[in-house]
Specification:
Layout (H helix, E strand, L loop, with lengths): L4 H8 L6 H10 L2 E2 L5 E2 L4 E2 L6 E3 L3 E3 L4 E2 L4 E4 L10 E7 L4 E2 L4 E4 L1 E6 L4 E2 L4 E2 L7 E4 L4 E5 L5
Parallel strand pairs: 1-4, 2-5, 3-6, 4-7, 5-8, 6-9, 7-10, 8-11, 9-12, 10-13, 12-14
Antiparallel strand pairs: 14-15
Helix pairs in contact: 1-2
Length: 149
């Protein structure tokens, strides 16, 4: 686990005593990472993570790298939560979420599979396969990683 302040606060959210304090500390630093979000090992929040917004129904795997401006959330924000069919976003292991990318789910779960790279400012609207590289608005498959190990 990285020793920078933002990453330390991200993991501290699960602490029963200091969790809320860590959550509000992240908010002051410009990172919206709700307490219910599960985070795997070795998360890296690059460059302080300013502008990161993660939906509370998200799951983040091991060795995920998140750059500033990344958003994970619903694409149907015009509906109330009770009307939405959104269930969550799952970021699997070894994923790179480049600066400014948006991952938006309309219904069910959206899966960003192991080793996927979502390019800078891409708007991902559907699940990926293992080792994919996605870019553009809306995001399209633009390549495959040679190795995710």
């Amino acid at each position: 686990m990285s020793s920078d302040l933002v990453t330390t606060l991200a993991y501290a959210r699960s602490n029963k005593v200091f969790g809320k304090l860590a959550y509000y500390g992240l908010k002051l630093l410009g990172v919206e990472l709700p307490i219910p979000v599960r985070i795997g090992e070795d998360l890296e929040i690059a460059h302080g993570g300013f502008g990161i917004v993660i939906h509370s129904s998200s799951i983040i795997g091991d060795r995920v790298k998140i750059y500033p401006g990344v958003n994970l959330g619903r694409s149907d924000i015009h509906r109330s939560m009770s009307e939405s069919k959104f269930e969550g976003i799952v970021i699997e292991d070894d994923v790179i979420l480049s600066p400014g990318c948006k991952i938006l789910c309309k219904e069910g779960f959206l899966y960003v599979r192991k080793g996927t790279v979502v390019g800078a400012n891409a708007v991902l609207l559907k699940s990926t396969s293992v080792g994919d590289i996605w870019g553009g608005i809306p995001a399209k498959l633009i390549g495959k990683r040679e190795s995710t190990e």
